[in-house]
Design goal:
heterodimer; A: 319 residues; alpha/beta; nine-stranded mixed beta sheet; B: 259 residues; Rossmann fold; two-stranded antiparallel sheet; 28% helix; binds flavin-adenine dinucleotide
């Protein structure tokens, strides 16, 4: 069976949820091999998880150079693998960095690239949403080794057993790939809540929340549901909540089972980041707010009354 | 410091957008066309660097005749001149081909820094700046929320999923910016008047030494085979809060097994 390369998303070997989704999607096209690029020890940590989602092989490229420079080293190592193995396809996560790795790989291998993929068929055709989720298209690659950047949370990860046999690969990085040096990494805390892009429930607040202090109301509802917290751009621009929690065109794209929008009007740029959520709930005092066009369930009312009451009721039901 | 800013004309993201029925390329005829929002932040950043360090700012656009409007709009913010890559054979070019054409165009210009928006609102491939860095063999400083220039040393804060990275490089480099980096200026009346007489050079594929069959829809490395509007969502329930809205909300969530 044809080999399909999957670039593993991980944090020092701790595998991110999207990787299971990528391995699942890859199985439609052939036999998935996981490529773990990162610091020494990453592949060993990742191995068990990758086996659970059907990785037959693990290519381990461990070197400080991978994270020491921006994007280019990963693309170089992947391009070499593509040349050596002639895989049927390469799958990466459609994160900002994943898309950049894919872009450089596409140039190096003269291959077509499809981004924000939400499904992959056995014949290689991919589903994509475009124009802020307003249109659904089916696309295919015409040149080279198809490269798919797959959107997190779009595909349900299905476990399958894989041999996960490890093969170490050499990481030799060219001078031009060392042009941009990463000198510092700063993690802005999200506490114990799930990661926004991967969470199955997201509770978001907008300008209507009114202040950074008031965001506690949103956090409390999120915590009662085990959810991640998101924010509209009006909320992040006003300093109510840190920018990395922004949902929308210029923030994160989320596709959770449940999205709760509180005090958010539903501008097109916000919708772009949450439109594909399975169930959408809105709380807004303006009955004409466009967010209600998307909502499966909407409460027209003051969020300062509705949200704390909902939180209390949920906590009461859980107790 | 000479800077080239990449500017793309796109259908307005707040208006109705579609694909052409026939060749499934972005419909630019029926849409109202604007500068890609993120590119305004790129122009602003270029102007700030010029104001602090001197040099020239050149706008580079690839697009059809209509893109002239966006070029003039961009120039009215303050850049010195523009280069317009315009050739009928470019219609329908994929990201890979676009990066090839822009890389060629950039190699005809003198620059220390290229600044682009981190994504466009139509294609949303978000990989073009990385592709250009790859093709030109220069530093990739993408996803910036802050740019600092000291001589030929560049430092950016690169936005990541959980915070940011500090990244350093020397010119030449490609920087791409998010809307967190600055607040774009509005063109002044004087700027609008001056833009009319600023030089705009047009380059064709022949000028760049690219054959027409290497570009456009025919050479696209990927293709759209089917397209349809998202099926409209079934109207949901909308109820006014009559004092028990929160409880009703919790009931809905419990019914959906979210609690
Ligand atoms: C290039 C570009 C990119 C953008 N990217 C993004 C993006 O990534 N994400 C994003 O979100 N936006 C983005 N925007 C901005 C977007 O256009 C909107 O301005 C933004 O989403 C509005 O945020 P909001 O809904 O919180 O605020 P508003 O539109 O001001 O809405 C606030 C809502 O809160 C309601 N409200 C107020 N008080 C209460 C109360 N007490 N109880 C209940 N409801 C209340 C109001 O009725 C109103 O509907 C972008 C814009 C541009 C130009």
């Amino acid at each position: 069976m044809a080999e399909v390369l999957v670039l593993v998303e991980h944090d020092n070997g701790v595998v991110k949820k999207v990787t299971g989704e990528l391995l699942t999607a890859a199985r439609a096209l052939g036999e998935p091999s996981a490529v773990v690029l990162g610091a020494a020890g990453s592949a060993a940590t990742a191995s068990a998880r990758l086996a659970e989602f059907g990785a037959e092989k693990i290519y381990a490229g461990e070197s400080a150079d991978i994270d020491g420079y921006v994007v280019a080293p990963k693309a170089e190592v992947l391009a070499r693998l593509v040349r050596d193995l002639a895989p049927a396809a390469v799958l990466v996560a459609a994160t900002s960095e994943g898309k950049e790795v894919a872009g450089r790989l596409a140039v190096k291998t003269e291959s077509g690239l499809l981004t924000d993929v939400t499904s992959i068929d056995a014949d290689g055709t991919a589903g994509q949403t475009i124009f802020a989720g307003g249109m659904l298209v089916k696309s295919r690659v015409r040149t080279g080794t198809p490269i798919y950047a797959v959107r997190p949370n779009a595909i349900t990860a299905v476990p399958a057993t894989g041999a996960a046999s490890r093969q170490d690969i050499e990481v030799s990085v060219s001078d031009s790939a060392r042009a941009a040096t990463v000198t510092e990494r700063v993690v802005e805390a999200r506490g114990s809540r799930p990661e926004l892009a991967e969470a199955s429930i997201v509770v978001s607040g907008g300008r209507g929340v009114g202040s950074a202090d008031n965001f506690k109301i949103i956090e409390s509802l999120a915590d009662s549901l085990g959810a991640a917290v998101g924010a509209s751009r009006a909320a992040t621009d006003s300093g109510f909540y840190p920018h990395q929690f922004q949902v929308g065109q210029t923030g994160k794209t989320v596709s959770p089972q449940l999205y709760v929008a509180c005090g958010i009007s539903g501008a097109i740029q916000h919708r772009a980041g949450m439109q594909t959520s399975k169930t959408i709930v809105a709380v807004n005092k303006d009955p004409e707010a466009p967010i209600f066009e998307l909502a499966d369930f909407g409460i027209v009312g003051d969020l300062f009354a509705v949200v704390p009451q909902a939180t209390d009721e949920i906590n009461r039901r859980k107790a | 410091m000479n800077i080239v800013v990449l500017v793309k004309q796109v259908p307005d993201s707040s208006s109705e957008r579609t694909l052409h029925e026939s060749d499934k390329t972005v419909d630019r005829d029926s849409a109202s066309l604007v500068i890609n929002e993120m590119d305004e932040y790129a122009i602003e950043e270029a102007l700030k660097v010029k104001e602090a360090h001197g040099g020239e700012v050149t706008v580079l656009t690839m697009g059809p005749d209509k893109a002239t409007e966006s070029i003039r709009k961009a120039l009215s913010m303050g850049p010195d001149k523009a280069v317009h890559v315009n050739d009928p054979a470019l219609h329908g070019s994929c990201a890979l081909v676009t990066s090839k054409v822009l890389a060629k165009a950039l190699s005809t210009l003198e620059w220390d820094l290229v600044i682009a928006g981190a994504e466009s609102t139509d294609g949303q491939v978000s990989a073009l700046p990385a592709m250009l860095a790859e093709r030109l063999g220069v530093a990739q400083l993408t996803g910036a929320r802050k740019l600092t220039v000291e001589g030929s040393a560049l430092t950016v804060e690169r936005q990541t999923d959980d915070g940011y990275q500090v990244v350093q490089a020397a010119t030449p480099a490609i920087v791409s910016v998010w809307d967190t980096i600055n607040e774009p200026r509005y063109p002044s009346f004087k700027g609008i008047m001056q833009a009319k007489s600023k030089p705009v050079t047009t380059l064709t594929l022949a000028d760049l030494g690219i054959s027409p069959d290497e570009a456009g829809l025919g050479a696209a490395t990927s293709e759209v085979v089917e397209a349809a509007p998202r099926p409209p969502k079934q109207a949901g329930v909308k109820i006014p809060d009559e004092g028990d809205g929160g409880v009703k909300l919790a009931e809905f969530l419990a019914a959906g097994k979210f609690v």
